[in-house]
Structures are given as C-alpha cells and as structure tokens.
C-alpha cells in the first residue's frame, strides 16, 4: 500500500470514528440539560406551596424560584393547569402581579410553552431594527425541526401573520434570504453515508461564489446541508484556501448579512460554544444583558446547558456559574443560578 493510500485509509478511519462518537452524543441527547424531570413531583404540593408564596405577608420569591426551576417545562404546565382548576385563577397572571423586573420576565418564560416564548422573541427581533441578525438567527438555526414548526405555528396563532411574511417585510437582501431559508426548515437530516463528492462540490462552489450575485450559493449550502457535512466542508475549504471560511465571509459580506452568516457558521461548528460565547458577551456588558441570559439559560436548560457550561469553562477559564454569581444582581440572581445549576471545577 502506498503512503498516500495509507493516509487516505487513516483519514477515513478517523472520519468513521468521529461519527461513532457523534452517534453516542445523539443517543444521549436530552441528558445534557441541567433541568430534568423532578422524580418526586407532586402537583398538589407545588400548587399549595405557590399559593402560600403569593398569599402570605410578603412574596416568598425563594419558594417560587425553587419550584419553577426544579420542574421540567411539562411539569410546570401541569402545575399551571392544576392551579387554575383549584383556585379559578391564572398562575401566570398571579405571579406577574406578585413579581416585577427581571425575575418576573424569567417566571413568564418558565411558565409559557417554549414555542410561544420563541415566537415572541422572534417577533421582537424582527420588529426591532438591529437584532434580527442576532436573535432571529439564534432561534431559527438552533431549534430542532419539530421545535421550529411549533414556534412558527405559535407565531401565526399569536400575531395573526406568518413569520415568513414579517421576515419579508422587516428584512432585506442576503439576511432576508437567509432567514427565509432557515424558517423553511429544509436542512437535510444527518446521514450515515459520507458524501465526499458533494463536500468537494460545495467547497468549489463556495470558492467560486466570491463575485457579485453569488450570495444565493452561500445561503443554499449553509442552510440546506446537514451540520456534519458542513463541518467537513469547512475543513476542506480551509485546506484548499489556506484560511477559514469565516475569513472569506468577513471579506465577502458586510453589515447584518455578515453578522448572520458568521453566527450561522458558529452554530454549525459547535452549537454549545456558540451559546457559551453569547453568554460571555452578555455578562461582559456594562449592565448584564438579562434578556440574553434568560433566553439562553431557559431555552437550553433541558437540552444541552451542561455542554454549554463545559465550553464556557474551557474557553474563558472560569465557570459559567461563578461568572453569573459575580455579575448578576437582584432578585433574579437565584433563578439564573438555579438554571445554571452548579459550579464546574
């Protein structure tokens, strides 16, 4: 066997082994959250505890946080339903009347269905000039296909308009095309078949798409191919050109299109690291960005927050828990720390 054949065989072996690791991660998906189903769950006890928390002299914020941050979203929905049946009162409205500020927003996000929270955040991002390329990409690019469909359905139900219509009217150019493609949810699913020919074709297509009127090629490849394939494309692109694909994006695109494409590339490369970077940035602002902290910690608490914590610690040299502990102030602090869950030594 020639040296080149040996290298090719070794490369193929590495590729196969990497996907075996990926398969294990995929099989364990859902165990990487910090918030799990509470095994000793008693809906009656939780309803009574929340009633005492808001009906006594002074609001027992600690009790409210303890209940809501130690139950899965499904269990929280059961609590809200039982509260309504037993008291003829809406739990969400009762807690909103008792709370205020950042803690109120956290409680609202915890008690609402995830799809409704995503729909509201997406709507705000599209209507707020300057955040569509950030929040909209985050929601449309990181939710699973079923989650995305539920979000879009909630969007239509709550705002009486399709999300795609708002994308059309509120954005333009490459950003609009990118968001519309993500909203369609047409990304290919993971395949155990490694298509080296398609990877090479995509690399060549991206290399050639550096002139005017070639933005569609970037949008098509980055929104349609599965992430495992795209990571392979990114690696081959760097070997062929001598620089990362993101370098070309920075030179080729500008403004909101550049920001959106760089965010999407980050999601594709390492979703947990993407969120760790966003959390770090939110904590570095003069005043912590509580909206970002709340959105990420809640939306990822039952999926991959443990992975995000690990990436945060690895990149920034300290734990997410310690960073929150040192930076976050006020009555929302215990809630955000409870969602993060624990220190990473």
UniProtKB/TrEMBL annotation:
Highest taxon in the source lineage: Eukaryota
Keyword Calcium: yes
PROSITE patterns on file: ANNEXIN_1, ANNEXIN_2
Membrane-crossing residue ranges in chain numbering: none
Keywords: Annexin, Calcium, Calcium/phospholipid-binding, Repeat
SUPFAM superfamilies on file: Annexin
Record Pfam families: Annexin (PF00191)
The family this protein is said to belong to: Belongs to the annexin family.
This protein's domain notes: A pair of annexin repeats may form one binding site for calcium and phospholipid.
Name of the protein in question: Annexin
Species lineage: Eukaryota, Metazoa, Chordata, Craniata, Vertebrata
